């Protein structure tokens, strides 16, 4: 009899444990459902045949449907007709065990409008071994439209600016043909030509920056004299900033032939030399910006030294995109583009602020083979 009582007590204890377990599971399910119902991301669950079993409110809002419009229907109803066969095959392969990577897709809403989403998926299996696919989506339609609009505006701007800039570059030649110019007028006309050329180069660089970031930019490698390039940069920068040409000193510079993308390298040094002058021009004790060139068998190292210190808080990110300090109109793009230009050539740029009151920027480029 006592054994029966013990057995009954054990059964009752198990029943209580199961009841508590069931309550815990119910609580977890309610909490999970509440999270899914209120998440801003769209969530749907489809069965092995791609039939909607569940859709959360965010999913319905993205597509402009009520839940009852979707449940029991194929997910292909939100896929553009041209892509349905492909997406149906992709769904079948996923159910069969193939991985589906996160990706961007075109979908169609209840009004027939094309939208863009980012989607990811997860496999679910019930107690009977039946498979389900949980898909999580984010609507990026607005972001994609803004990106396309920006690209269109940039393309139109570049196209519309090229023609007048080309005319501006040739203006000095026309002025010289009209009659002799004074030395001052000749200098001004040369500045006009260089400024126009600089703007054309900037337009070209802005178009190529994305390719550089993606590692898809192929530099136009040609041999040229790096010293002559630096002298052109010094002349243009000092003319643009209306400062004396003696404010920039080139050390160890005679003739150095390198093989690189000349326009890209010129843009690199123009940005860095301009930064050096801007950092030192407001200081009471002005000293020339010094550029020193050192070579070894494998590398060319160009050091740019100027008065003024880079603030400690931006030294680690000095060459990152949009990082700037101390310039009212600074964008943080110049040093970033310079760094990208060096990397494209297999080189690098470094910052040294170890000497109090000075900043040293070093550009290292692979040396052309003799």
Commentary on this structure:
- The chain has 370 residues and is of the alpha+beta class.
- The protein has ten helices and twelve strands.
- It has helices spanning 2-38, 57-63, 67-70, 84-95, 141-178, 183-213, 226-240, 262-280, 312-315, 334-344; strands spanning 42-46, 52-55, 103-108, 114-125, 131-139, 222-225, 248-251, 257-260, 289-295, 299-307, 348-352, 358-366.
- It has a five-stranded antiparallel beta sheet. Strands 7-9-10-12-11 form a five-stranded mixed beta sheet, covered by helices on one side.
- Strand 4 (114-125) and strand 5 form a beta hairpin.
- Helix 5 runs antiparallel to helix 6 and helix 6 (183-213) packs across helix 10.
- The protein is elongated, with a radius of gyration of 33 Å.
- Mean pLDDT is 79; it is low at 3-8.
Could you say which structural class the secondary elements and strand pairing correspond to? alpha+beta
Given as residue ranges, the uncertain stretches (5+ residues, pLDDT < 50) are 3-8
SS field, number of helical segments: 10
**Rg from alpha-carbon coordinates:** 33 Å
Biggest β-sheet: strands ordered side by side in the sheet:
2-1-5-4-3
| Number of DSSP strand runs | 12
The helical percent reads 40-55%
Share in β-strands: 15-25%
Succession of helices and strands: HEEHHHEEEHHEHEEHEEHHEE
Taking the sheet with the most strands, its summary is: 5 strands, antiparallel
Calculate the terminal CA-CA distance, rounded to whole Å.
Answer: 104 Å
Mean pLDDT: 79
Q: What gross morphology would you assign?
A: elongated
């Amino acid at each position: 009899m006592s054994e029966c009582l013990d057995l009954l007590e054990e059964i009752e204890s198990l029943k209580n444990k199961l009841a508590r377990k069931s309550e815990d599971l119910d609580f977890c399910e309610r909490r999970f459902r509440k999270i899914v119902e209120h998440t801003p991301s769209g969530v749907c669950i489809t069965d092995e045949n791609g039939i909607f079993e569940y859709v959360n409110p965010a999913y319905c809002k993205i597509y402009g449907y009520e839940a009852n419009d979707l449940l029991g229907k194929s997910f292909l109803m939100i896929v553009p007709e041209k892509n349905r066969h492909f997406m149906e095959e992709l769904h079948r392969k996923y159910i069969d065990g193939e991985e589906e990577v996160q990706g961007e897709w075109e979908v169609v809403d209840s009004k027939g409008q094309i939208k863009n989403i980012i989607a990811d998926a997860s496999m679910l299996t019930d107690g009977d071994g039946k498979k389900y696919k949980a898909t999580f989506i984010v609507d990026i339609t607005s972001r994609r439209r803004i990106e396309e609009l920006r690209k269109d505006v940039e393309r139109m701007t570049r196209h519309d600016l090229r023609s007048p800039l080309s005319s501006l570059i040739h203006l000095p030649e026309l002025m010289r043909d009209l009659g002799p110019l004074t030395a001052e007028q000749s200098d001004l006309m040369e500045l006009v030509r260089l400024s126009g050329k600089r703007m054309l180069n900037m337009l070209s660089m802005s178009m190529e920056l994305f390719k550089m970031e993606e590692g898809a930019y192929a530099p136009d490698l040609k041999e040229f004299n790096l010293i002559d390039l630096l002298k052109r940069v010094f002349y243009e920068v000092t003319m643009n900033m209306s400062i004396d040409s003696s404010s920039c000193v080139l050390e160890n510079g005679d003739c150095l032939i390198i093989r690189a993308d000349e326009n890209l390298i010129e843009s690199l040094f123009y940005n860095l030399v301009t930064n050096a002058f801007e950092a030192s021009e407001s200081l009471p004790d002005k000293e020339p910006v010094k550029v020193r060139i050192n070579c070894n068998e494998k590398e060319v190292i160009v050091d740019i030294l100027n008065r003024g210190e880079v603030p400690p808080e931006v030294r680690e990110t000095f060459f990152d995109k949009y990082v700037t300090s101390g310039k009212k109109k600074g964008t943080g793009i110049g040093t970033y583009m310079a760094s990208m230009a060096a990397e494209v050539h297999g080189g690098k740029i470094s910052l040294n602020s170890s000497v109090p009151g000075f900043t040293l920027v070093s550009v290292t480029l692979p040396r052309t083979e003799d």
